[in-house]
Amino acid sequence: MAIKKSELYSSLWSSCDELRGGMDASQYKDYVLVLLFIKYVSDKYAGQPYAPITIPAGASFADMVALKGTTDIGDQINKRIVGPLAAANKLADMPDFNDATKLGTGKEMVDRLTNLIATFENPALDFSKNRADGDDILGDAYEYLMRHFATESGKSKGQFYTPAEVSRIMAKIIGIGGAHTTSATTVYDPTCGSGSLLLKVGDEASAKVTLYGQEKDSATSGLARMNMILHDNPTAEIRQGNTLADPKFKADLNGQDVLKTFDYVVANPPFSDKRWSTGIDPLNDPYGRFETFGVPPAKQGDFAYLLHIIRSLKSTGKAACILPHGVLFRGNVEADIRKNLIRHGYIKGIIGLPANLFYGTGIPACIIVIDKEGAHARKGIFMMDASSGYMKDGPKNRLREQDIHKIVDVFTKQTDVPKLARMVGLEEIEKNEFNLNLPRYIDSSVPEDLQDIAGHLQGGIPETDVNALQPYWTVCPGLRQSLFTTLRPGYLSLTVDKTAIKSTIYEHPEFAAFISRMNALFDGWQQQTAPKLKALQPGFHPKHLIVELSENLLAHYTGQPLIDEYAVYQHLMDYWATTMQDDAYLIAADGWKAETYRVIEVKKNKEGKVTKTVDKGWACDLVPKALIVARYFAKDQAAIDELTASLDSITAQLTELEEEHSGDDAAFSGFDKINKASVSDRLREINGDADAREEAEVLNRWLKLAKEEADLKKRLKDAEAALDAMAYAHYPQLSEEDTKALVVDDKWLTVLSAAIHGEMDRISQALTQRVKELADRYDTPMPQMARRVAELETRVTQHLQKMGFVWN
């Protein structure tokens, strides 16, 4: 069975719980990721001749499993597994599995490592049969863990990871996806961290490219090497060392060392590195990185990394580098460097990003895009302020799929978009003294909602506010006339009651026609897409599928009035992430099989030993029970719904009866607990008592309702059990066509339809809310308000006088 991403992530993250108590995230990530690496390479390469990764005899994951429970497990893992594996594949700085300060001593270490290994024995983590899309799953799982570790590591230790969303933008905007890319194309990251940015660029390329990376931190460079292997890039060259002081990638030019040059360079260097010049004489740099543009300040290393990148590019090379906004406007030496770069034409574009995206800092950053090709003919710099498009994700901000796509689209097409992006000519930049601060060129501020004084004094809705809703009036020109009429020049009044605004909009023929066109638009996409989805065969690539689907949907809605095509696109991407992706991987591995399985809950004691297993019923991931019931057993479900409604009604009557008669001297006042036994006992006590006739009536009514409730509960339980059995028995009867209809029509497209039609509701609600807001704002002119206040004041004064008070 295919590995579900959601199951894989939860399994891997649970392994972290085995270590969490002994160390912080920056440390325990090393153990978890090394276990993941060993499990993967053992499954994929053990026993294979000429494999790109060597698994020495006795150093596989199976050999590690054999060590579980042994008293010297940590020492044996180091000597027999990690050591030989690292030596055979040149993987330095592996974590110490016998470190008592992190893993504990004696039984604590044995249990911790034993449980950690056991987590990776999960059958769902069998990578031996997942050689194509399984590699993608594994690599994505690695990214998932890296992101979580970076989040938990805090500011000082989260720099090893560039958010995948930013990496994807950089990979796309440098243009590596074109047909010109070949296996000879080279990509370099001088500060590669764990290698995630480098790999995203490699993924974006149209052919398998050659990857190079250098990382200063030895442990992080080890993570990068493993990351390359886990992403099926075992030949990538990752070297450890200080890039500025000791660059590892060099070439020989007439007997002299020079920097090796690359087709593409990407980087997320440490922001404002105050120790960048350690080990360097910038004025006599042997690689000539600072002689053309200037020497960066000693305590500000941002331009040092950028100049290293420029020197490492071929004459037609392209690069993207993440830097703090300070590089755009800081003065003195940095201003001179910036001026020289602009005059050389090397800066193609600047993209401002939201604040709090990165794990090492909360400050906003930008992407500087370098393009040496055509630099001499460059007449401007394309600037984009994309700082407002993001979502909150715990303590950090995160770019959504729609934000990524929009940034890439606008930048790639070099499209001028108000308040977002435009091409800025060099003359304008020169007039601003080569200051590249984005607010100087792009006003991304949200217009203030101004109050109209004349409207408040004399009444009437300002026509300028109504004109601002022009996109709606373009689609529904008659709707404006249905809502507003002229009060006086420049001011309008509402023609309908404020309570009727919503119905006037919804029921207007033009708006109804617009909604119908939008519904037909989705129906057209659905009719076009459903056959393609049903034609999917085992072995297809889910990642290719979502690219094709999402791009098709985006293009389908592009240019449509009022609706934001990127918001529609986001609905599909959200559903893909939560549900559709797992379904696609199941189908890619096993075909259209609706297989049920038992849900077993395992309970453990404090020592981690299983004490009990509980059968929680059954489930089917691809075709959930609700889909079977809705399509084949709708009448049975309707009967259950009726029973549920009846039960709710009876329960409500019981509750109401108890509340009504629970006061002092009421029927239930003396009850410790109201149940059948206590009520029956009380009825026997008062039997024949004429004074207790009303109490007896209440208690008898309670007994009658309680019996009805019990009967309904039993009937409901029996009906639900019968429906559950019928649904369970129906799965083996499903044909492949049945399964396709259930998954594609009833599940995927039904959910997407509801989400995208929700955009129509958002459009109508936005118009309704704005019209009502304007109507409320100018509903009562100030003179009328003043008269009303005076009237109320007079009435209050009269009342006070009647009461004997004089109000001055």
TrEMBL record:
One annotated GO molecular function: N-methyltransferase activity
Biological process per Gene Ontology, one example term: DNA restriction-modification system
Catalytic activity: a 2'-deoxyadenosine in DNA + S-adenosyl-L-methionine = an N(6)-methyl-2'-deoxyadenosine in DNA + S-adenosyl-L-homocysteine + H(+)
Entry-linked SUPFAM superfamilies: S-adenosyl-L-methionine-dependent methyltransferases
Enzyme class name: transferase
EC number of this enzyme: 2.1.1.72
InterPro entries per the UniProt record, alphabetical: D12N6_MeTrfase_N, DNA_Adenine_Mtase, DNA_methylase_A-5, DNA_methylase_N6_adenine_CS, Restrct_endonuc_T1M, SAM-dependent_MTases_sf, T1MK-like_N_sf
Alphabetical keyword list: Methyltransferase, Restriction system, S-adenosyl-L-methionine, Transferase
Domain N6 adenine-specific DNA methyltransferase N-terminal span(s) in chain numbering: 10-120
Keyword Transferase: yes
Transferase among keywords: yes
UniProt cross-references to Pfam families, sorted A to Z: HsdM_N, N6_Mtase
Domain DNA methylase adenine-specific as annotated: residue spans: 135-445
Coiled-coil boundaries: none
PANTHER family with a match to the protein in the record: SLR6095 PROTEIN, TYPE I RESTRICTION ENZYME MJAVIII METHYLASE SUBUNIT
Family in the record: Belongs to the N(4)/N(6)-methyltransferase family.
Stated name of the protein: site-specific DNA-methyltransferase (adenine-specific)
